[in-house]
Amino acid sequence: MNVLIIEDEPLAAERLASLVKGLQPDVQIHAILDSVKRSVEWFSKNPSVDLIFMDIQLADGLSFEIFEKVEVTAPVIFTTAYNEYALKAFKVNSIDYILKPIDKSELEAAFKKYQTLTIQRSAPDKMMESIGYAMQMLTKKYKERFVIKVGEHLKSVEVSEILFFFSLEKTTFAQTKDGRKHILDFTLDQLDGLVDPARYFRINRKYIVSIDSIQDMISYTNSRLKLVLKTSDDSDVIVARERVQEFKEWLDR
């Protein structure tokens, strides 16, 4: 198997190469590249390898830029320090990603996934679809402020000042740190895609909460969680049972 490593941290590249050789002794590592520019030059002059390990954030930009400049036909396993929210697509498509620091067992699982995917005709198309989706997620700009109406006046509210969003009688509200409620012209479904998922989590059909809003968490019936939110007088803020595990993972970042 011919492998290419694209990684701008020398120690990380050396460790990855060592792990790869340890798991796959017959692997030949053709090159270790440390930038978008060098990678584009390499792909322009060399035949395709069997598998690529690619860091996402390189010294001169995101590695996704490589795909915009040259054709990359080999399967890619990304190594990244980015959070999992931005890369969910990789878990259900033809490529994989490994969070740094790289764990040997995760690398082994990625190799197994690669071996499975080599027999799938649609792998290259799915790979490019995943890359496009992930690049959109990584470069996406989330809302920084909302314009609200206060009487006959308009006011700008910074998202960082909003503790949580909630829906009541078909109206959506944003509750700020000062305890005030502001009506928004968005549904919770719309807000779910507008606010940064690293800071806000949709716990049920009624609430999107920020990490800063949580004052207390209490075990509740049917494996659910009850939350006590700052400035809230709602005593029935419940994390839906099907969201509890993902919520705990979100908290434990």
Give the key terms.
five-stranded parallel β-sheet; 253 residues; OB fold (Dihydrolipoamide Acetyltransferase, E2P); 2 domains; Rossmann fold; 8 helices
Please tell me about this protein's structure.
With 253 residues, this protein is of the alpha/beta class. The chain has two domains: 2-139, Rossmann fold, CATH 3.40.50; 145-251, LytTr DNA-binding domain (OB fold (Dihydrolipoamide Acetyltransferase, E2P)), CATH 2.40.50. It is built from eight helices and 17 strands. It has helices at residues 10-23, 36-45, 64-69, 89-92, 104-117, 123-139, 188-192, 244-251; strands at residues 2-6, 28-33, 51-55, 57-58, 61-62, 76-80, 96-99, 145-150, 153-158, 162-168, 171-176, 181-184, 200-202, 207-210, 214-220, 224-229, 237-239. The strands form five sheets. It has a five-stranded parallel beta sheet, sandwiched between helices. Strands 12-11-10-14-13 form a five-stranded antiparallel beta sheet. A three-stranded antiparallel beta sheet has the order 15-16-17, with no helix packed on it. Strand 4 and strand 5 (61-62) form a beta hairpin. The longest helix is centred in the middle third of the chain and has 17 residues, at 123-139. It starts with a strand and ends with a helix.
